[in-house]
UniProtKB/TrEMBL annotation:
Family affiliation: Belongs to the AGR family.
GO molecular function terms attached to this record: dystroglycan binding
Keyword rRNA-binding (UniProt): no
Name this protein carries in UniProt: AGR3 protein
Amino acid sequence: PFVIPLGWGDDITWVQTYEEGLYQAKKSNKPLMVIHHLENCQYCQALKKAFAENEEIQEMAQNNFIMLNLMHETTDKNLSPDGQYVPRIMFVDPSLTVRADITGRYSNRLYTYEPQDMPFLIENMKKALRLIQTEL
């Protein structure tokens, strides 16, 4: 059963599965943003709050991205290039390529963002959007 991921932003439309996310990304020519998290993880909770409170992130998430929230690991190894940890945020472009080049600030967990990293996440969201325009 699909549960709407609460707390990330009330106006975000979420796809239900990774497969649907890939389909929608290709169809709409928007990047897919995959957020891996677990409910009982304090780092995820802190990230969720910062994510929800950031207007610029909310606007981009609503308008420019296909959004997927995963609370379990996917079988796609491309989504865990440096291990399975939460929270992590990854981008997949409409050509269905996982963008291993869009990473956060931490070399030991490449796709982790902390609450204070929202400006960095905004930059990476913009980068994901720019890459579509330049590459496709």
